[in-house]
Design goal:
By secondary structure, this protein is an alpha+beta fold. Helix content is 50%, strand content 17%. The chain has 2 domains: 65 residues, Helix Hairpins (Orthogonal Bundle), CATH 1.10.287.130; 131 residues, Heat Shock Protein 90 (2-Layer Sandwich), CATH 3.30.565.10. Strands 2-4-5-7-6 form a 5-stranded mixed sheet. A hairpin with a 2-residue loop joins β6 and β7. α1 packs antiparallel against α2. The mean pLDDT is 92.
């Protein structure tokens, strides 16, 4: 009798998957929400006008950040409608720019605006997170459709762009160690790809990292 196939994707229980994704979302929100709380405390307790102005600016900036993260997470991790629902790729572009695009990272979006199956759009947004993580010093993310496929190609170009071996394993679904809250996002990306009948990879191409689902 043969043992389990070591190359087969790891099956994570539904409760564990839900718990780890919740931990990931909470981790993303702790920083801006904490900054809002700190800003409110300073605003209420300090009578110095310059300090109160600084606190108000912090509250505004952190509120925008928290809102952008919530809107992104709603599409990338949430139900986003009933089973079989479709999502407008224009909405995906809007939340992606709101969360990822800043002074360091710019997005070139070459996808047509259309309705796509819910999990295809969730896959695209999660691929963007994986791609953005490969250029921690900033750069550009170029999003393209793949001809003759329901998949996507995201080219991440930036100084010292690199993808870790752990991320590659998590995308395939065969991690070398237990999946934790830090690794659940690329692991979930692989789950979404397989649900869509696709395989997601992250490989170097010249000085870029290309995250593709085919």
């Amino acid at each position: 009798m043969s043992g389990p196939d070591a190359s087969a994707p790891l099956a994570l229980g539904a409760l564990d998957l839900a718990a780890l994704l919740c931990s990931r979302v909470c981790h993303d929100l702790i920083s801006p929400v904490g900054a809002i709380v700190n800003g409110v405390e300073v605003f209420e307790e300090d009578n110095d006008e310059e300090t109160r102005t600084f606190a108000l600016d912090l509250i505004k900036k952190s509120s925008r950040s928290a809102s952008a993260r919530l809107q992104f997470c709603r599409l990338a991790f949430g139900a986003a409608g009933s089973a079989g629902a479709q999502i407008d790729t224009g909405d995906a572009e809007k939340v992606a720019r709101g969360l990822i695009e800043d002074d360091k990272i710019k997005i070139t979006w070459n996808l047509p605006r259309e309705l796509r199956a819910k999990n295809q759009v969730k896959l695209l947004l999660n691929m963007l997170l994986v791609a953005a993580a490969t250029i921690p010093r900033g750069g550009t993310l170029t999003v393209d459709p793949i001809e003759g496929s329901a998949g996507f190609r995201i080219a991440a170009a930036g100084l010292n762009a690199r993808v870790t071996p752990a991320t590659v394993e998590l995308l395939v679904g065969t991690p070398g160690q237990t999946v934790d809250a830090h690794g659940i996002q690329p692991f979930y990306t692989g789950i979404l790809a397989r649900d869509c009948g696709l395989t997601v990879t992250a490989v170097p191409e010249g000085e870029m990292i290309v995250v593709a689902a085919r």
